[in-house]
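About this split. The held-out portion is used to measure sequence recovery: a designer receives only the structure tokens and must propose an amino acid at every position. Recovery is the fraction of positions where the proposal matches the reference. Here is one held-out target exactly as it appears in the evaluation file.
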């Protein structure tokens, strides 16, 4: 765990998919959804590793986990004209009812 905290790369763990391969696979899946559904709203339910992998690519970061997504939070990325714009991260507004947030 200490090595991961230092490097922020999954590559420090043995017997795992290489970070670069994982990021490429995530990017391919999301970009494929965009091509398949142009102009539509796309919802993807996934874990924090996928979110970080895709956002790292958008931001040009060479790390695998640069932030910790809250459980059940939403993240909004706007797509258009070849651009990807991060609109919101870790949004929990829809969980405003008492007792829904656990952190």
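Reference sequence for scoring:
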């Amino acid at each position: 765990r200490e090595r991961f905290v230092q490097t922020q790369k999954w590559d420090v763990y043995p017997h795992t998919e290489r970070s670069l391969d994982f990021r490429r696979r995530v990017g391919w899946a999301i970009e494929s959804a965009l091509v398949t559904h142009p102009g539509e709203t796309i919802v993807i339910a996934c874990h924090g590793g996928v979110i970080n992998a895709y956002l790292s690519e958008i931001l040009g970061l060479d790390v695998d986990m640069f932030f910790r997504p809250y459980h059940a939070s939403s993240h909004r990325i706007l797509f258009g004209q070849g651009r990807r714009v991060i609109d919101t991260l870790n949004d929990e507004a829809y969980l405003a009812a008492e007792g829904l947030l656990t952190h």
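Annotator remark: The helical segments are 2-7, 19-36, 48-59.
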